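Record type: ASSEMBLY
Status: queued
Input:
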Amino acid sequence: MTAPYGKAGAGLGAVSAVVVVLLLMPFWLTQFQLFLLVRVAILALFAMGFNLLFGYGGLLSFGHAAFYSAGAYTAGLILKAYPSLLVGVAGGVAMAALLGFGVGFFSVRHIDVYFSMLTLAFGMFVYSIVWKWDAVTGGDNGLIGVPRAPLAMIGFKHGLNMMPIERYYEFTVVLSVVVVWALYRLVRSPFGLMLQGIRENAERVEFAGVPMRRYRLAAFIISAAVAGLAGSLVGPLENTVGPDTAHWATSAEPLLAALLGGAASFGGPLVGAFLIVGIRELVERYTQYWLLAMGGVMLVLVLGFRGGVTGTVLALARRVAPGRRGGEAAR
Amino acid sequence: MVQNLLFQGLVGLTGAMYLWLIAAGLTLIFGVLRVLNFAHGSLYMLGAYFALSASLWMHQGFWPALAVAAVGVGVLGVLLEVVFVRPIYRLAIAYQLLLTFAFVLIFNDAVKMVWGPLYQAPPMPAGLGGSVVVLGRPYPVYNLFILLAGVVVAAALWLVFDLTPWGRAVRAAASDREMAAALGVNVPRLFSQVFGVGAGLAGLGGALTVPMQTVSPGMGENVVVDAFVVVVIGGLGNLWGAFVGALLVGLLQAYGTLFVPVFDLALAFIVMAAVLIWRPAGLFGRSG
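Status: finished
Output:
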């Protein structure tokens, strides 16, 4: 965290290199592989937003599907009425943030199990609305025929055509990189440090005169907005948005990604998202029982590797090269 | 009109007893072990499948099937506790939720492998089929039986926990593990037993629903969320709170269908959120 500027410059270079490689992917990969990478990006965004609350704030939300779904449905409805990708995504983010404010306002007063339960309750509340409000959400069927609308761009009269998966992939990559960079800055800002301080010792931080709830609420809203962003990207990719986006099993996905990758490190959820989509794809080729495999992986993680993949790798690296800074060990 | 309302109250009470049978084990496990068991719905589902198999494959009657389900799931619960849950008592609650969630996924697919993905409807037990006229309307006899079963289970739990030495030891361990251990209670063994009893209750609850609804993979998922709501309203870990919570949610759902059909699913969650905001520890919970 106290890296000198030269190191930061090297980091920027590395990030640019990664972005360039990511943007070159359409030359090597098949359309289906690009489709999967968009899925990785969506889950990664969802999980990183979630982890702002979980890994950095110490708050386990079990209702994040509500924000994901709110983003997905809002974007889907907008896109069906007004085909502009940016407007749809912006609408989804705004709706999720608004909902996040409402839910967060009540939830952040509580911690531990009660926070989890309260978010679960609000999440299921949203699920039941999505399920029952046929006229708007399409009920059981969900929204069908969400278009991959063009992206408004200066110099293009009709906007950039997003129909080819290559274009949509590039759009997702650029958007994700910007958001991940913003989140990275955020967790290293005074705000992010304060959030971690609250996680470690809430009493002490509050005693120092910090309005703890306001920090938690702000983190909650940002986290919800990022979940909404992830959700709003689903409709244009799959052309449908179903009620299962709001189900509590969806809320478990970012948690799984965060823990699989390692919730204690910034990039952990990204690694986790990649692994989940990859494992699922592989397992589903051989058997329909992919949940069984996922459950097995979770068991092993919880019982043996609580730092996740990044935590384990960093611990190994520390052993090989002692003295170097690594991620913090699993709690 | 009055008769209608009373009848709907009966429907609500029946729903409440279904909820209570599941919530009892969940709140028992949390109250003693401090573990929030997400897999409780899966144990409930397994209870239903065990009962189904006992009646379809082994050609057992209704009562032996109930016993098979309760004991079978109870034993499974003990195994789960000893092998998997025991190592994680000291960890953050997130890991407990995650571990038990892993079992939700595993059992869901395991059930599909063993019993297939289809819905199955077993026969109604002899003597409990048909319906009687209550308050001028026909009502299934089986639902009246469930009302009775809920009360019997409540009474049995009260007897066990308030009057037996085992129950006293459980209550002692629930309020202070170290002290109970120092006084000679074998706390790890007690925890396994309590997990087994809680799981057995879930199995029994699942088996009892078998004649009234189709059995399918995933039947436990919605149930566990309903049970969470009940348990949280009553106060996590409080048995009588769960009973009252079940009554509240059951009646609410019954009258909700009558008056606000669009919101009937959401009503319970609204009440839960309201309770948590007003009394964070639930209606009967200790603060903390």
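Annotation: Confidence is low (pLDDT under 50) at residues 324-331 of chain A.
Annotation: The beta strands of chain A are 143-144, 151-153, 156-160, 240-241.
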